[in-house]
Write a structure and sequence with these properties.
The complex is a heterodimer of chains A (108) and B (348). Helices cover 29% and strands 27% of the residues of chain A. With 108 residues, chain A is an alpha+beta fold. A five-stranded antiparallel β-sheet of chain A has the order 1-2-3-4-5, covered by helices on one side. In chain A, strand 1 and strand 2 form a beta hairpin. The longest helix of chain A is centred in the N-terminal third of the chain and has 19 residues. Chain A starts with a helix and ends in a 6-residue tail after the last strand. By secondary structure, chain B is an alpha/beta fold. The interface between A and B is large, with 34 and 40 residues.
Chain lengths: 108, 348
């Protein structure tokens, strides 16, 4: 199984679970033509996420808002952390977000 | 200077929390304990008073100190520790905090874990939650505070078992489902040995192997793949991830950051031992309450023959399988990056 096929399955599972974590109604479908691409469909927006592995040496994630009126091109993200944040920002108009706090925090 | 262990006693209104505390304060083993409570009257200490140090600290004839909270818990604790340092109060070796019946223990734990001044002086030993065998089930049905108190507990004490006809199996089963990490103890009229509650070393992550095992307390068999023990109770879910393959340290860091960012308050507790590629023989101990984590601690060795990573999640209705998918995806991404860098080095 190609690396991209693996990523396709992982991406599908990851985004499906993320919708549940974010408490958003929607679904995730795999792109029929691209093995490492998924499309998230909610009432707010449709977003495509694709793992790009053939554009230079370093793979990255493309996140694109599927809106015929948008002028914003797909944006690249080096890692899953950035990708998930970008997807959430496109789908959730009022996300509740926290940051990781480790141990004692001086001055807080 | 060694840190002072701090335990939190919580439990819903009428669950027997105050009865437990009153009984404990009379026990000789509770000498050299400072108890922090909301008001003296509620604990019925009058006959035990020896001397009032000032309006909010009293010395009991058992040797305990009793201190009322002055508005802010952290400031109260800092003040108490400073008084000890100056010799203004009897020396104490441990602190027990009793919360109100409607308290959410998570912010209390987080405050204890993150205040810089406190961090130098204390270590959080754990949360003890009382649940009433008579009304506990109905309370769990009606009040989310009660559910959360049980869900974040390190130990749960079932009280008033002398008042029920059955062996309290139903409430035990429900609590075990809600929080598989917490041992279930029993106390009638608050009668329980203090060392069952306060010397468990639950948060002393440099403790001995059996104590680390008890702290994690999953009682799960070892598998080579994720063991889905997703359970549903009152919206609270418990999920355990087990992995035999080691994890990149960077992947673990990213994992915790993403959990904090996207799960936030819905991630009630996370405890785990993690095998890292960088140190497979010294497991990393992970502990978090919502988005607040203790700094990782590395054990000198694994507590038993199992060398699998085990992570136990207690959440407010989050899909447990997502934790596995996320961790695996991050580990894959980091592994690919590392492999690529090594390949580039080899070609250079």
């Amino acid at each position: 199984m190609s690396e991209n096929s693996n990523w396709g399955e992982q991406l599908y599972a990851l985004l499906t679970g993320a919708l549940s974590v974010w408490r958003l109604n929607g679904r995730v479908v795999r792109d029929a033509e691209k093995s490492a691409c998924c499309i998230i469909q909610t009432k707010i927006a449709e977003v495509a996420v694709e793992r790009i592995t053939n554009d230079g040496d370093t793979p990255y994630w493309d996140v694109a808002l599927l809106d015929p009126d948008t002028t914003v091109p797909p944006l690249p993200y080096a890692g899953l952390q950035g990708m998930l944040r970008a997807v959430r920002d496109l789908l959730d108009q009022d996300p509740i977000s926290a940051r990781l706090v480790i141990g004692s925090q001086a001055g807080e | 200077m060694p840190t002072t262990p701090v335990s939190v006693i919580t439990g819903f209104l009428g669950s027997g929390k105050t009865t437990l505390l009153s009984r404990l304060l009379r026990h000789p083993d509770m000498a050299r304990t400072a108890v922090v409570i909301n008001e003296f009257g509620a604990v019925g200490l009058d006959h035990m008073l020896v001397e009032a140090s000032d309006e909010n600290i009293v010395q009991l004839n058992s040797g305990c100190l009793c201190c009322t909270i002055r508005g802010d818990l952290v400031l109260t604790l800092l003040d108490l520790l400073e008084r000890r340092r100056r010799g203004d109060v009897t020396a104490f070796d441990r602190i027990v905090i009793e919360t109100t019946g409607l308290a959410d223990p998570a912010p209390i734990l987080q405050a204890l874990m993150t205040d810089n001044a406190l961090a130098q002086a204390i270590r959080v030993e754990g949360v003890v939650t009382t649940v009433d065998a008579v009304n506990g089930a109905a309370t769990l049905d009606q009040y989310q505070e009660s559910v959360k108190q049980a869900a974040v507990a390190d130990q749960i004490i079932i009280t008033k078992t002398d008042l029920v006809d059955t062996d309290s199996g139903d409430i035990r089963d429900r609590l075990a489902e809600l929080n598989p990490m917490a041992p279930l103890l029993q106390a009638v009229q608050g009668d329980i040995a203090p060392n069952q509650l306060f010397n468990a070393g639950t948060y002393d992550l440099s403790a001995k192997s059996d104590e680390v095992r008890a702290w994690l307390n999953t009682n799960l068999p070892v598998h080579d793949h994720a063991h889905d023990v997703n359970r549903h109770s009152d919206g609270i879910r418990a999920h355990t991830v087990i992995r035999s393959e080691p994890i990149h340290a960077v992947a673990l860091t990213l994992f915790l950051e993403i959990l904090a960012e996207h799960c936030g308050a819905d991630l009630l507790r996370l405890k785990g031992l993690v095998k890292l590629i960088e140190s497979p023989d010294q497991p990393a101990v992970i502990h978090g309450v919502q988005n607040v984590f203790s700094p990782p601690v590395w054990l000198d060795r694994w507590p038993d023959e199992s060398r699998d990573s085990k992570l136990v999640f207690i959440t407010n209705d989050l899909p447990g399988v997502w934790f596995e998918d996320l961790l695996d995806a991050l580990n894959t991404e980091v592994a690919e990056t590392v492999a690529r860098q090594e390949n580039n080095k080899a070609l250079a």
